[in-house]
Amino acid sequence: MAAVTGIHAAGGVVWRPADDGVQVCLVHRPRYGDWSLPKGKLERGEHPLLAAVREVAEETGVRAVPQVRLPTVGYRSEGRPKTVDYWSMRAAGEGGFQPDTEVDGIRWLPVDDAVRLVSYPHDAEVLATFAALAPVTGALMLVRHAQAGRRATWSGPDTGRPLDATGQAQAHRLAPLVALVRPVRLLSASPRRCRQTLDPAAELLDLPIEVLGDLDEPEPGQQPDERRLAAAARLTELGGAGEPVALCSQGKVIPGALELLTGRADDFTTPKGGGWLLAFAGPRLIGTDRL
Fold first, then answer.
1. Cα angle at 202 between 179 and 44, to 5 degrees?
2. What phi-psi label fits residue 36: left (phi over 0), alpha (psi between -120 and 50 degrees) or beta?
3. Based on the domain organization, do 125 and 37 belong to the same domain?
4. Cα–Cα dist 66/61, whole Å
5. Are 150 and 122 found together in one domain?
6. Rounded distance, CA 216 to CA 132, Å?
7. Is residue 170 domain-shared with residue 114, that is, in the same domain?
8. Do residues 43 and 123 share a domain?
9. Which of its termini does the chain have fewer beta carbons within 10 Å around, N or C?
10. Looking at residue 1, what is its pLDDT?
C-alpha cells in the first residue's frame, strides 16, 4: 500500500492598525462555508515563508510583511495529514480584494471578535498566540554568507575569497526571502563573499550594499566577545529604529550575537546561505525564526 502523502501549507495572521488596537483579516471559503485564516499549499520547492506571503496576497489582496513565526498546526484534511506554518504579518498595502470560488469574502476584525468567528479551534489558538505578542516595531533579515569553497584552496587574502557555484545559487535563492521584509538598507560584513551573498537581493530591490565592520568575524588577536558585542549592539540599534533592514554576517558572529540578544544558550548555529527573521519590540528581540 502506498504511503499517504502529507499536505504542507502556509499562511498568516495579517494585521493592520485600528483606532482601538489592531484588526486581523479572516477569509470566507464558500466550498467549506467557513471563516479561517488565509493560507494555502506550497508550490513545489517553495520556501514556506514565501508561500505564506504569496497565499495571503492571493486570498486577501493584501501585500504583507512577515514578522514573527506563530504556532504550526496539524490536522487531517480529506483523509491526509496537513501541516500549516503561520506567521504574524503586517499589512503593507491592499491591492483590492477580488472574490472568487476559493475565497468569496474577507473581514477585518478585532482579535477577540476574530477568535469568536473562526470555524476551527486551531485558528483560534494561533490568534491567541498572536494576541499575546508584544507589538512588533521592527524586523530584520540576518543571513550568513553563502558557500565560498574551502579556505585552504584559496591562495589570496581570505577577505577576497568569492562565492563558488553552489554559493551563487544559494545567494539567488536568498534574494526573494530577503525581499519579503521590504528592507530599506542592505548591510554586509567586509569579506567579498558576504557582499556577493547580497548581490542578487541588491539587484532585485535596487539598493546599494553598505559595508559594516561590526558584522565581521574577529581579526587575529581580537577577542571574540568584542565582535559579538558589537554585532548585538548594532542589531539592537537597527531593530529598535523601526525600519526593515537585511544584513549578511559570518558564522563566528551570528550565534554569539543572538545568544546575547535572547539571553538564551540555544543553538543559533547558522549554515552557509541560511539565516534568521528577527522581530523587535523596541530594543528587545522577541522573535527568532530560522530560515
1. 45
2. beta
3. yes
4. 15
5. no
6. 36
7. no
8. yes
9. N
10. 46
Let me know whether 122 and 161 are in one domain. no
Q: Is the same domain home to 282 and 162?
A: yes
3-state SS track over the chain: CCCCCCEEEEEEEEEEEECCEEEEEEEEECCCCEEECCEEECCCCCCHHHHHHHHHHHHHCEEEEEEEEEEEEEEEECCEEEEEEEEEEEEEEECCCCCCCCCCEEEEEEHHHHHHHCCCHHHHHHHHHHHCCCCCCEEEEEEECCCCCCHHHCCCCHHHCCCCHHHHHHHHHHHHHHHHCCCCEEEECCCHHHHHHHHHHHHHHCCCEEECHHHCCCCCCCCHHHHHHHHHHHHHHHHHHCCCEEEEECCCCHHHHHHHHHCCCCCCCCCCCCEEEEEEECCEEEEEEEC
Written as nine digits, the cell of 86 is 503561520
Rg (the chain; Cα; Å) = 20
Domain boundary among 80, 99, 131: 131
- Whether residues 142 and 120 fall in one domain: no
Yes or no: say if 64 and 106 are a contact pair by the CB < 8 Å rule. no
Burial (CB count <10 Å: 0-12, 13-18, 19+), residue 165 = exposed
CA dist 253 and 270 (Å) reads 10
Crossing angle of helices 48-60 and 165-180, in 10° steps, is 40
Question: Does pTM top 0.90 for this prediction?
Answer: yes
User: Number of folded domains in the chain?
Assistant: 2
Domain finish residue from 110, 131, 152: 131
- Domain with 106, as residue range(s), is 7-131
User: Average pLDDT of each block of 10 consecutive residues along the chain (291 residues)?
Assistant: 76 95 96 95 96 97 96 88 96 85 94 97 97 94 94 77 96 98 97 97 98 89 83 96 96 95 93 97 95 90
Residue 165 neighbours by CB under 8 Å, 6+ apart: none
